[in-house]
């Protein structure tokens, strides 16, 4: 049954193919004439050609390119014609689209479900004779059979038809074919099947552009789509007095069109580009309004007029917020022209003036922040092919240098060159193959390089130069003062990095030393200025003669500030500040007095500790004597009572001494605190 339906669709399509072929012949071919590739991953494609009369052309695009086409396509009919429309296959969700047909093929319906949709439709079946009738119903019946002695239940689908001879029932297993006699229904099924077939092709979609006018006219089509980023690679020959830079652009034609005699431009820069889904239809959910029923109205109670007015205003506000109020009356007929003017693309007959902008991209060296390379001769590049095209072949200012960075390589610098972009062109980043004396010297990389900009490259290890870096750090106190008992110190840290450079080559070397940049708090003292500075390092330049050794010193200083609360410091740590000559005598004397007071306080606290420990010993002895007294007789008891009395006297004397000592400690703490709180010395 399903094979019959599919064959019917195929026959219908084959019957329509001659007309389609005839229609294809009438379409104009508008080839690609210009391509502008951007380094941001998009490309501008322009088709130019001619049409005659009412004509159309068809372009094929990948499905994921349709959004870019809808966002950026520019169309021009240059000789008095107009662009009629741009047609493309809808991307309506498949299930929604299938449900829009008279026969719903969504959800992979079974034959019984499909025939239920066709109830009342006239069909012609072969069972095996041809019978014509209208579908009355579809019934699934169960039958019990005995298969090899075992009972089994099977299901059969029975089609009930109303024929000229009455109602007939036909087992679908015995029906060889089924044909819809209604041409409209048959066409609907074929359309639904075509949609199913088209949904499997997710790679390419046709876009048809229609033009209207008279006579032969020039037309232009332009659009932006995603393309591979065009890349650059360079060759740098350092031989001779003026080094030569050769640049190549690597481009890929990933489109479905051959580039034949195409004007190609390559633009360096990063224009902002994005993708917005304009292809998928969007549906806005709408509220469901139920009709009011008046069959069982209840008796109404009516309020006073003013109260009713307030309620009406409140209802109107709520309805406005929810969007339920009816729209304003439509504009009058005489206002129609004004309304059309609001949405029109411009004055009637006006030409879309994008030609100058497109041409300036191709002809100008600079367009805002962008820079382009225009290939002088038209390019031939078949689809799915790549090409390497020369874009630069010019002398450039370059000086050989050796670049040393201890973090990159501790013992040797790297062979390199300092380039000055005096080519009047903006160079894109890419790899550089370096040649010297006609031989391969190494590979390097370079970032985007603007006009007149300077940049270093490195391509090999310079084994003829060795470097031995050594570091020395020094710190001294440059200022000290005491404010409210807090010692404020200012230290000057000096960092000295010595690079011992030995040149074993038979010619002098220009050395670029890269030294780490530690931040704005560390000041460069020697040398006074670097050759240049980056966010992370200094660069210094020096020349080292052949067979010579040179010490290159980089000296930096940094001021550190420290605060020390004297009250919280031990006398041992404070003692150092009284002996250093970096602190003034007044500050040293003030610290010495604080140390003396802290020592006196420490002595008193030590004495208090001794007395407290002695009292605990007496209390322990006293407790032992009490236990002995409980276990002896009357004679020995008198002896223990006397000892207990003597111990009590000693404890009372200790308590008095402890109290007096505690008062001295309190007084000494107050003396120290008062001294420190009022201590201000510079």
What does this structure look like?
With 682 residues, the protein is α+β, with helices and mostly antiparallel strands. Among the domains are: 2-25 and 94-202, no CATH class; 465-568, no CATH class; 585-681. It is built from 11 helices and 32 strands. It starts with a helix and ends with a strand.
What is the typical, i.e. mean, pLDDT? Answer: 77
Tell me roughly what share of residues is in helical segments.
Answer: 25-40%
Main beta sheet, described? Answer: 8 strands, mixed
Number of helices: 11
Q: Care to count the β-strands?
A: 32
Query: End-to-end span in angstroms?
Result: 108 Å
Mass-distribution shape = flat
Strand content: 35-45%
Residue stretches low in confidence (pLDDT < 50, at least 5 long) are 1-25, 302-308, 319-365
Secondary-structure-based class equals: alpha+beta
- Could you tell me the radius of gyration in angstroms? 49 Å
